[in-house]
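In the design runs reported in the main text, the only information available to the sequence generator was the tokenized backbone. The following block is the verbatim input for one such run; it is reproduced so that readers can re-run the procedure and compare outputs position by position.
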């Protein structure tokens, strides 16, 4: 009997959380061959005598000639790929439901941890967000301001909030298209939204640039840019997190790839490691944050390091992930 082999490659936007499955036309193994082999007629002598194979569960098809299978395979692949054009969410969810599916230990842990954050989080609940772009996290910020007790903003994304407050930012990274939303978030949730009180600025985007520390109410000079949070902000963040029972961190506090601008990111990692030792639940949201704690040698000091990346943020934002929904429905 032929070896059973079904290889249907499904590409997810962020592995391994199972987000937005989209068929990759370059890697779809012919499922007609798989159907022929999975439900083959040869179940002992009964199959040989009847010369028939059991209808499969998907299409209830009987025996077919190879050329019929190949023609149908081409049509089916085109049909599936055309579904993608009609809407990734609908087609993706349909694929996730139809494929054999089961939840492994890694995904199960991710879902359980993130569900705790949205359903039964231990308070005070604090979130530290950083990274370069605020536009990628506006939805997450808006949703977290409804659920978290404190939201600490650092990294390049804080610059847009500073400009929204009317501050001159010199050559710092700012997203003009996000200014109105930033102003709205500040107006609605200024008590929860905590920005840096100082910053380390540089006269060039390089490790050996000239640097100085600037207070939050001072304008950034022309030709200078913010590349890290300052020492006063590190202490302010430490105080804000001191009594937290749950902390999630996503995004570095500065350009941590450069040693001279990694102090803020490293300090946050150390703060969270200390909190974990005291019983606080600390969750690192993957990506650069996970790389930062690994780089600091503190990965084993955190409660959980997410491998979901952007998918974790989408769950915190309140979105439904088709792959996860299919697993939970089973």
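Verbatim output:
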């Amino acid at each position: 009997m032929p070896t059973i082999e079904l290889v249907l490659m499904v590409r997810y936007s962020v592995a391994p959380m199972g987000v937005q499955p989209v068929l990759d036309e370059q890697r779809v193994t012919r499922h007609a061959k798989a159907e022929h082999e999975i439900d083959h007629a040869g179940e002992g002598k009964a199959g040989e005598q009847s010369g028939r194979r059991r209808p499969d569960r998907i299409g209830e098809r009987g025996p077919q000639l190879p050329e019929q299978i190949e023609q149908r395979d081409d049509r089916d692949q085109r049909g599936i790929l055309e579904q993608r054009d009609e809407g990734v969410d609908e087609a993706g969810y349909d694929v996730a439901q139809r494929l054999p599916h089961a939840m492994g230990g890694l995904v199960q842990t991710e879902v359980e941890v993130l569900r705790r954050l949205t359903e039964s989080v231990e308070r005070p609940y604090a979130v530290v967000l950083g990274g370069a772009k605020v536009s990628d996290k506006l939805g997450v910020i808006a949703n977290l301001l409804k659920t978290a007790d404190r939201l600490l903003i650092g990294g390049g994304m804080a610059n847009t909030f500073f400009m929204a407050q009317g501050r001159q930012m010199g050559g710092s990274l700012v997203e003009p298209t996000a200014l109105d939303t930033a102003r709205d978030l500040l107006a609605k949730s200024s008590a929860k939204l905590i920005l840096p009180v100082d910053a380390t600025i540089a006269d060039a985007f390089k490790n050996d640039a000239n640097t100085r520390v600037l207070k939050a109410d001072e304008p950034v000079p022309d030709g200078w840019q913010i590349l890290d949070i300052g020492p006063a902000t590190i202490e302010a963040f430490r105080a804000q997190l001191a009594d937290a029972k749950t902390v999630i961190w996503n995004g570095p506090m500065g350009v941590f790839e450069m040693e001279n601008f990694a102090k803020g990111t490293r300090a946050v990692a150390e703060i969270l490691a200390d909190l974990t030792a005291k019983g606080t639940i600390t969750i690192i949201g993957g990506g650069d944050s996970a790389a930062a704690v690994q780089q600091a040698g503190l990965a084993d000091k955190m409660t959980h390091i997410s491998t979901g990346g952007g998918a974790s943020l989408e769950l915190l934002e309140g979105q439904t992930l088709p792959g996860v929904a299919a697993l939970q429905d089973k």
